[in-house]
Amino acid sequence: FEESATGGSYLIMEYMAMSGRPNQEDFGRRMAEMHLATPEAAEARAGRFGFPVDNTIGGTPQLNEWTKGSGTEAWVTFFREKRMAYQIELAGDASLDRQWQTTLEQTNGLADLFDGVNVRSSVLHGDLWSGNIASVAGTPCIFDPATYYGHHEAEWGMAWCSSFPPAFWKGYRSLIPKDAGFQRRFALYAGYHKLNHYNLFGGGYRNGAYALLDEVARG
């Protein structure tokens, strides 16, 4: 990315001949390898969560200020405040706000969802759905990200729009096993994206977000 002499800007990107879908087991393994890779950002290598700049998730701002600390407690605070609470505030919906408060009360501010889980900082695509996945000469390719460093499980918040088959999970789980309590956190991470879709598009996404918040609260 560069500023031009005339005051505009331009972005030069690598050309990739994308076609079709990748081999799903290979794709799953490669996603796990990405999540396990040593982060490039020094802050993430120190275990912190965030990104060097704020970005967007669709058209919605995504706040990425680095956490002060590292580890599970820092991640819980980051996701609660920079992801969920921000989307709830944007929604301006009283019933969603009430359900969010109930969810916080029932989960000790989300901390109970991460009992016994050691959250490390992984680079995330951040908006992984079927429209952002392709194959290039037989190699899996992902694009159009909403990148930040976070909990690897947060990658699956758009799984409701991805249709990952069993072969994908076989490849992924061969390197990263499923942690206890995954399903409840899966609902939490999906809730973030349902809230974002409600803020972008309105309609039935509100009910979907509400149901997921309730699922998280009830366990």
Q: What report would you give on this structure?
A:
Helices cover 42% and strands 11% of the residues. It contains seven helices and eight strands. Strands 1-2 form a two-stranded antiparallel sheet. It has helices at residues 24-36, 42-45, 71-91, 94-106, 166-173, 182-201, 205-218, and strands at 2-3, 9-10, 55-57, 60-62, 122-124, 133-136, 139-142, 148-150. By secondary structure, it is an alpha+beta fold. It starts with a strand and ends with a helix.
Brief summary:
This protein has 219 residues and is an alpha+beta fold.
Key features of this structure:
219 residues, alpha+beta, two-stranded antiparallel ribbon, 8 strands, 11% strand
What does the average pLDDT come to? Answer: 96
Strands of the largest sheet, in order across it? Answer: 1-2
Structural class: alpha+beta
User: What's the order of the H and E elements?
Assistant: EEHHEEHHEEEEHHH
Task: Estimate the helix proportion, in percent.
Answer: 40-55%
Shape: globular
Stretches where pLDDT is under 50 for at least 5 consecutive residues are none
- Rg, Å, rounded: 18 Å
Beta-strand portion reads: 5-15%
Total count of helical runs of at least 4 residues: 7
Distance between the terminal alpha carbons, to the nearest Å?
Answer: 45 Å
Count the beta strands.
8
| Sheet with most strands | 2 strands, antiparallel
